[in-house]
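Thread title: Can someone regenerate the structure for this chain?

I was given the following input by a collaborator and told the matching structure tokens would be attached. They weren't. Posting the sequence so someone can regenerate them.
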Amino acid sequence: MSPVTVDAPIMRDAAAGPARDTSPARSSRRPTAHRAHFVPEQPSVEPNQSETHDPTGAACMSVQNILNVRNIRAARERRMDRATAIFVDGIGTAAATSGILTQLQGRIFALLYLHPKPLALEDIAAELQQSKSNISVTIRGLVEWHLVRLTPVAGSRKDHYEAATNFWRVMQEVMERRFRWNLRQALAAAAEAERALADSGSGRDAPSSETKAFVTGRLTGLRLFFTAVDVAIGAFTQGKVVDGETLRNVVPLAAPVQKRR
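Best answer:
Regenerated them for you:
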């Protein structure tokens, strides 16, 4: 048999691997290396903005953490004694049922009343374990009722507060703004009802004489009683002694009794 001869170019192509496609369509594609150059421009590999370093934000968080730690330490160091705690809780409970103050307002007043020096807002907040903003809003009502007053402290720009000790002035404010105002509203309503009853005339829709007499007696009794209480409150707020005999001399407490037929 004659030996099989292999063409040399064919052997060289087999050793070099598969033949490359040199067509124009294939050669127009981007090479793989050139495509890899655009990978960093994809959104998936862009750096996250939230992960960037913000020195201002980090500094603010650091300062806030330091302040929180200082407030906690200050609250532990200034833990009120047992007598003060009992008084603060008791006055807070009484204020909550007064209809005038809230429980927190009562606690603030009690704390300031037993403290020898004025306290700043952050000190009050630390003692009562409240936020400074909550204390700042709540204490305004106490200032309006003259139960707490703003007191300047030398060398400090902070607002300091102390409790009022003139209870006659406090009671006068409470009586005038709370109870006496309500009494005068009741007196005005009774007087207006009496005028309307007198102007009712004698028409078909007018009340009968018995009804008029009954309503007049009731309104007169209410008006006389609240007038006496109004006078008593005025005397009390001025530090005067008020007794039953004085009230009887001012106005008769009993309305005239209507005789039944």
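Strands lie at 119-120, 148-151, 160-163.
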